[in-house]
Amino acid sequence: MKRTLAEIVLVLALAGAAAFGWLNMQSGKAASGQLIEAQVDAEVANEQLAATEKEVVEAEDALDALREEMEALKGKALELDAVKAALGNGPVLSDLEAAYKRDKVALGVDRQLGLGALRMLVKGSQDPAAVEAYTQALETASKAMQAVNLDSHKKAVCAAQIGLAAAGQKVEISAECGGQAAVAQAASGHAAPAGHGAPAAGKAPAAAHAAPHWEYAGAMGPERWGTQFPTCGKGKEQSPLNIKGPFVKQRVSLAPDYKPGQLKILNNGHTIQVNVPSGSKLRLDGKPYDLLQFHFHRPSEEQMDGKPMAMVVHFVHKSAEGKLAVLGVLLKEGNENPGIKALWAHAPAVETPEVEPADVMFNPANLLPREYDFFGYEGSLTTPPCTEGVSFFILKSTVNISKEQVMSFPFKMNARPVQPLNGRTIITG
After folding, report:
1. Is the predicted pLDDT of residue 315 greater than 80, yes or no?
2. Residue pLDDT, tens place only, 343-394
């Protein structure tokens, strides 16, 4: 009996030992598998780290190359600034034009392009006459190139087309320019279009938009502007605003000094715009800002305590240093406005180049109220590319416009929605 009991104990011990050994073996296999997986993960991580290090090295090389290009561009920019400074007063251009006229020199394609380019360099794309002269020279050169296949003009014509497109003009890029059309499109994304930026060309040919398309409703409405114009979506000082308190009192002298001149009016597909001859100014604390153009929005882009007016007219000014200032006059539905009546009589109902009605003069001061108390803030262009750094002054006094005149405006709605204040201060003066 004792022997049998001992045998049973021995068998149980052997079974326990076998079970313990089997469990240890299984644990060892699991640990071995985990170790192998860890080794594989480590190898993958090392490969990813090596790839990342390679990308970092390539990015640093690209950044170094970009820095070198930027340094080279700085040099070119300084050269261009020197040329512009030398020609800034314009006597060389006027002397050259007078010499050509005096000597009855035929203005061939090369001379027309050269004079157009010099005028743009001296006066810039903000000057309608300069843009018009350059556009006409470009048309002549383009026709000559197409007629006799003048390859010698190809480079100049392509550069001119791209330059005008970058200045916000409607220019059809020639097929001969190839991939440079994309350059023009990219450049125009940073150019101020007609509306709140540079005045539109006086007689630019009706052609396809070189700049990315945008509109006030539909697939490329304001909520989608940021996809093509990043500042419209990411900017922190965008316009227009809902004008509401609290306000900060600030003493700013605001004095419009507008003069009558030949009426130059156009429908640019987004608004009715009037390009203003030189001479009219806005003085801010005595500093002059030249009036470039004015245009209309329906309803008013600015709101007063959450409510828009029937329309608004925006007067766009520019200082000698390039700073933009917009004076806004809210138009309240009421009696007929004689100044609006004069403009609407010549305003194109559809998109057209600038027109100049014979012997029709207009003074922008006809659209101003008597009092110039205002609300002011730092904002942006209210149309793409929504460039910031624009000073806005919205007059407190409104001007009347009749319901019929509002209804006669070719655009049912051309106002950007109000934008976040983002901590900005609205001043009152």
Report:
1. yes
2. 999 999 999 999 999 999 999 999 999 999 999 999 999 999 999 999 999 9
168 and 295 share a domain? no
Catalogue the E-assigned strands of 191-247: 242-243
End-to-end CA, the chain: 117
Decide if 375 is inside a domain.
Answer: yes
Structure token digits, residue 425: 């201060």
Amino acid at 202: G
DSSP code per residue over 373-423? -EEEEEEE-SSTT--EEEEEEEESS-EEE-HHHHHHSS-S---PPP---TT
The burial of 293, by beta-carbon neighbours within 10 Å (0-12 exposed, 13-18 middle, 19 or more buried), is given as: buried
Q: Which of these is catalytic: 270, 295, 314, 317?
A: 270
Per-residue pLDDT at 411: 97
Same domain flag for 247 and 327: yes
Mean pLDDT of the region 202-218: 64
Q: How many domains does the chain have?
A: 2
Whole domain around residue 298: which residue ranges?
229-428
Write down which residue in 158, 173, 188 finishes a domain.
Answer: 188
C-alpha torsion angle, residues 383, 339, 325, 119 (rounded to 10):
80
Residues 180 and 238 in one domain: no
Domain boundary among 155, 188, 221: 188
Q: What is the CATH number of the domain that holds 235?
A: 3.10.200.10
Q: Does residue 336 surpass a pLDDT of 80?
A: yes
Query: What CA–CA distance (Å, rounded) separates 265 from 348?
Result: 8
Asked if omega into 410 is within 30° of 0 (cis), the reply is no
Both 177 and 300 in one domain: the answer is: no
270 is catalytic: yes
Minimum mean pLDDT among 29-38, 178-187, 207-216: which range?
Answer: 178-187
Residues forming a β-bridge with 360: none
